[in-house]
Amino acid sequence: MNYISHTEIEKSEMLKAIGVKSVADLFKDIPQELRPKSFDIPKGKSEFEVIEHLKSLSRKNATRLTDFVGAGFYDHYIPAAVDALAGDPRFYTAYTPYQPECSQGWLQAIYEYQTVICELTGLDVSNASLYDGGTALYEAAMMAVRLTGRKKIIVDSGVSLIYRTMLYTYTSNLSIEFVETPVVHGQSCREDIFKNLDDKTAAVIVQNPNFFGAVDDFSDIVKRVHASGALAIASVYPVSLGMLKSPGEMGFDIATGEGQSLGLPLSFGGPYLGFIGVKKECMRQMPGRIVGATVDKDGKRGFVLTLQAREQHIRRERATSNICSNEALCGLRAVIYTSLLGKAGMKDLAQLNYQKAEFAKSILDKVPHVKVKRSSPTFNEFTLELPKNADDVVHRMINKGFACGLPLGRFYKGLDNYLLVAVTEKRTKEEIVNFANSLEAALCS
Amino acid sequence: MNIPDNLLYTKDHEWVKIEGDNSTIGITDYAQNALGDITFIDLPKVGSIIKRSGRCATVESVKAASDVYAPLTGEITKANAELASHPELVNKSAYESGWFAQIKAADLSEKSKLMTAAQYKEYVQGLSK
User: Fold this and answer.
1) How many whole angstroms separate alpha carbon A422 and alpha carbon A356?
2) What pLDDT does residue A3 have?
3) Looking at chain B from residue 54 to 73, which residues have their Cβ under 8 Å from any Cβ of chain A?
4) Which ipTM score applies to this complex?
């Protein structure tokens, strides 16, 4: 494709064809006061100058810190094959690859991705992906509103504050009532959820592991939610599904999550990957593209978009959602990543994360005045109670070479001395021991 | 085109068969033919209250999703469960096995707003001109 824009000759030909004298004349309907006075665009730079500028910007990034931060986004190892395969120009440069007669490769990749999401979540149907974990959760909430015809949603406060904020922002102009229920000793408060559950409730939303890292079996909540005619929605961490009970096994109707941990770099917050798996009964209300397998007229297997009557190009203003894009390239990375690991590999990965986190807990327990919160089982992330403000400790630990965790006081009132720590498979025994020693030193000084 | 005499019709191509308290509704032969192969029907829930001219179902064909409007006000007492696995029944038999739902009508005087078979036939012929 040629990326050089129109020449002056082409421009004058186009203007002549439509009978307009100049490009400026095209904008004369816009009143002068609504037009920008100037554009603050610097003069062009040479390639060398641009590279130097970008290098100087990137030098400001702290890239040498040992990472113990999670909070929904995790530092997992990405095999080189993920970049190599996803970087193939046939995938990398393709745009809206949905024309089945010339996009079988892409459509099959998306179909395989959907299969991975169904296997991980234990649910029946997945779409071709959504923007990120937060938008996926919003879409799930809206599905529940449409499916039940009800407008009250109970959200456990163990759901990431980022996602809750997104939910409230997206729905701020819709009359949806949200009720937040507390987390007590790390776990969802059953009593409060059940107290709020009524015949107006469209859904109950929980997260597993929750924001504090606590793992739960929500089967009992799901049962009660279903008895009241509402839907049960779980936001999940896909890597943890290698060893935890899946949302499908617990009876959830919809599972969503952030797919970053499946082969995507942290990369300052994006692009990420929202995934959604739903029970077959909810399928018609699922937003976004869905790829299906079929056979052509010669009986050969092929792939096409399916169930398109849900989407805006057919259903217009009553479409299930106006989301029409997806994160195909990020989804491709996820399917390559999970295929490289395989079923056994995903299990090993989950075990490794769990065991390293448990090892870290046992070491950190020995640091004077530090308490590992052990009221609930955890996966690869847990909460530490510190004798000091966690924000201050985080700053001190940066000087010692560690991004040591997320101070929970930033997200939760009254938790100023609590630190959320994640330990992925990348953290070595040596790093974990150094982390504990540095923490001890940081707390003494 | 099949337009049975014993039914009443709307301008949106729904039909009603009123039998005492029970009114059966569906879409007409003209509608199924215009829609083409029907792939899915979203039926109203039993027990839900529908209002005349309000949306009560959605029909998906290969390339369109169309709303079906209630010909009468009332409570849905039954929905045709067969259509979930066999939406093509509407194409095959729009007035018999392809029925959508049964309503307990709240006000049968709304009948006067519906068309007879003769009126509907004239209306449909007018559309094709």
Assistant:
1) 10
2) 65
3) 60-61, 63-65, 67
4) 0.72
